Amino acid sequence: MNALDSVPELAGLRRVALWAAVSGVLATLAGALFDPTQFFRSYLMAWVYWGGVALGCLGLLMVYHLTGGGWGVAIRRLLEAAAGTLPAAAVLFVPLLFGLGALYAWTDRAAVLADHVLSQKAAYLNVPFFIARTALYFVVWLALAHFLDRWSRRQDETAEAWPGERMKRLSGGGLVVYGLAMTFAAFDWIMSLEPHWFSTIFGMIFIADSALGALAFVLVISYLLARGGAFGRVLAPPILNDLGNLLLAFVMVYAYVSFSQLLIIWSANLPEEITWYLHRVEGGWQLLANALAIFYFAVPFMVLLSRGNKRQPRRLALIAGGVLAARLLSVFFLIGPAFYRRGLGAHWLDVAALVGLGGVWVALFVWRLSSRPLLAQGDPELAPALARKH
Amino acid sequence: MAPASHPHPPAEPPASKGAATPESAFIAPGHTFGSITDKISAIVLTRRTPVGWLLGFAIAFGLVMLFLMAVTWLLLKGTGIWGVNIPVGWGFAIINFVWWIGIGHAGTLISAILLLLHQHWRTSINRFAEAMTLFAVACAGLFPILHTGRPWLAYWLLPYPNSMGLWPQFRSPLIWDVFAVTTYATVSALFWFVGLVPDLATLRDRARSRVGRTIYGVLALGWRGSARHWARYESAYLLLAGLATPLVLSVHTVVSFDFAISVLPGWHTTIFPPYFVAGAIYSGFAMVLTLAIPIRAAYGLQDFITQRHLDNMAKVMLATGLIVAYGYAMEAFIAWYSGSFYERFMYWNRVTGPYWPVFWALIATNIVIPQLLWLKKVRLNVPVLFGIALVINTGMWLERFVIVVTSLHRDFLPSSWGMYYPTMWDWFTYVGTIGLFVAMLFLFIRFLPMISIFEMRTLLPESKVKDSAHA
Amino acid sequence: MAHEDPHAPRLYGLVAEFDSPDALVAAGRRAVQEGYRDLDAYTPFPIEALHEAMGFDRTRVPLVVLIGAITGAVAGYGLQYWASTIAYPLNVGGRPLHSWPAFIVPTFETTVLFAALAAVFGMLALNRLPQPYHPIFNTPRFALASRDRFFLAIEARDPKFDLVATRRFLESFTPREVTEVEE
């Protein structure tokens, strides 16, 4: 079967992705030879950005299986395709394991022993345990993605209800372990970049950020796909309106958890906590913080209040694209200041890694998406969605 | 301008209009517009007051008297009659405040969030859940006001120009609380009243006694069911729902700030806002079930509050309970991970310190036992579900006890350590507010329609107009 | 028009009574298409299709709420800014006088409060409620409008109103009854 049989609309996207992959990967590899430390740092940010989208899609997919609803049947295949890239994303994570020393201060044993707080945490923050935990997170995610994919394919083949029932049941418990894995991944991969700092809400921030990125990505792709045909019919204005409201809700949730953390830490002003924010409001980083507040919250929030913007596919896709772009700021806000200590900065490798990994990942996504029909024929929610009047 | 600035969109028509409408399972078959109207309004207008009602109200009223006695003694003697003292300055008053206000959250959640999510099953439970919210907020508000020691000066909390030239300290979460709780009480009351207006008109038109006609008539504001009015009404109601949704989340967030803005280990932790909100919804749904199960049995409302309602509410409890468990897990892990001596000591003291039985009772009631809700059999077994709801109500109270007391009673310096024991006056006040809550609820059931009549009518298939296209 | 006796009861309009929402929506839509403007329908529950059919679905309530929300936000933040930096500056644990992170919380609450008050009182004002008397209540069996009957009223002040023609028009939808209602 030709790879683009079911999604000719994405041929352009695939071409762009492949070009980005080739040029980005070559540039990144070249950069890695000259500056391995910078390579690992840039690569971590790029992985968190694109891997977060894939992981967020897995979470949304499970939420859909659990709750149902017209919003989900339209984007279900896109979520499944993104979740289907997770095995590849896991492989793409492996290079980071060779650069832990360049990323995490707690890998330096002498420094840990000299630091009272860090030596208290050594039982958790050490290289073997870190790798074992990361492996466990991927086992959890891959297992969930695998079984959901398998039963979803069975649902297409059979008229029976059991695959849907099983996906629903798996998603209930699955979301619990998924949430825990996401939380501890956020602690390990991102929070421990500044190993003294801690925040109990940090896992939720990462989950909210990933879910927001995932939904924005899916909305952009569904606009590219929706220029007609049955897919466009399912993506009718009422469904778009629901998806737009979901995007609005996610924008608000991200702002809510982020602002809660800021307000609590700012008010208490404890030295072990406030330093994390001091790194982010000094030396030019305040520009990034302000841009984050404006483009990742204020602007999307305002434009998504309007009903007209949500019901128009083009406008909604533009808004979602803006959110997806602004997520670069949020990932950079979380990770960047740990590396660029002397003030706001970036390296050309940050861009190269983002483009290269993004190209690879999007190409994988398109390939996964084209392997199955765009609409889940076995989904009991599909018939009412197709029958709905505009 | 008007359409572009629409903050929240009106609900879409239900997805499928076929024979098996999704709502149909939430109302027993065979009902008509008339039969729904008659059945619900009869509880208020024509049925005799049941003996059970009189008995229940008498008991609740007795507890209100107990409450008034406790408050009178408090006003005479001062807050010294309570068990609070340094280091535990926030005893029962704050525990009960947080408990009550949390319970209120389910009402707004059911009426606002489920409306926005097109969850039509909310219709038969939203009215009394909203009433529950109002009464719970009323009970909650009493505690901090009484705790100030001079409740007659409570208006000092509000920002108003005064001869002392003072203004509230707006960096304090306690002032945020004043704004949040008063806004919440006001908006909940408005939401509830707006929802009642069309039903009050129904009661006005059906009341047999002159007094009833007059009272319901005045309250109905002259509502006549005009289509022009309905259009604005629907718009306003949806906007209120859109406003109430972030509001309700903000209220328990602000309550969590009362703790988290401090520097006290056990209080100062960033997970508090979402975890308090989840806990509030958790306890609120438990209270809705605690009330709905006996009421539906007593008034024979199984046609309107069906098994599916109970099942859905049980699922919401399970989900929010898991978020609460997640919060506990984060607290425990980060207490260790922080590497901070005080954080670690705080948690270890919770688990093994003098209040260890409370902590482990909390884990059992709030985390372990509710896991039974994973089983469909349990969710569909009404008595067991009722029992679990009671267990969760207890568990959420214990949670607030653990947070308030175990964090305060071990200060940073061992010289400032102490123990907290509630006195009988603490218990009287607490039990008294339960009486107040139940008494108000009894009055509500007796005099107002406890199920939204006009919204129930829209659940019938006949209410769906067939020729909606431009014929 | 002839000079009217101020004490004689004046005609309010013609009111048709229907059994089902479908008949009412059909009649309402035709009436608007025929050019009637001073008309209204009375139903026991909101019928979205009716609002659309009769052109009532555009309301100014959202605009009122938006104005309320902006007022609340400005008033809430302004109050805190003024009280904390000008009227009563107070150093609280070294926090700046203009503590914007802290001020966001009450600002949010006042925004919602003002918007909600605007929604409720704006809706009531646009509906001209409370209104103790209205001629429509003189319709026979109008009490059933809050139970299970559906009414369509075409008012006498409508320029197109004609007692005979309008009655014939209403009767073409086979209502239970068409009555002349006085003010």
Tell me briefly what this model is.
With 390 residues, chain A is mostly helical. Chain A has 18 helices and no strands. In chain A, helix 2 packs across helix 16, helix 12 runs antiparallel to helix 14 and helix 14 runs antiparallel to helix 16.
Lateral arrangement of strands in the main beta sheet of chain C:
2-3-1-4
Q: Which percent bin holds the helix content of chain A?
A: over 70%
Q: Based on CA inertia axes, which overall geometry of chain C fits?
A: elongated
CATH architecture of the largest domain in chain C: 2-Layer Sandwich
Question: How can the largest sheet of chain A be summarized?
Answer: none
The profile of the biggest β sheet of chain C is:
4 strands, antiparallel
- Provide the number of structural domains of chain C: 2
Succession of helices and strands of chain C:
EHEHHHEHE
Integer-rounded radius of gyration of chain C = 25 Å
What's the CATH first level of the largest domain in chain C? Alpha Beta
Looking at the structure, the CATH topology of the largest domain in chain C is: Alpha-Beta Plaits
Note the total helix count of chain A: 18
Number of E strands of chain A: 0
Structural class of chain A: mainly alpha
Overall mean confidence score, pLDDT of chain C: 92
Element-by-element helix/strand order of chain A: HHHHHHHHHHHHHHHHHH
The rounded distance between the terminal residues' Cα atoms of chain C is 18 Å
Rg of chain A, Å, rounded: 21 Å
SS content category of chain C = alpha+beta
Strand content range of chain C: 5-15%
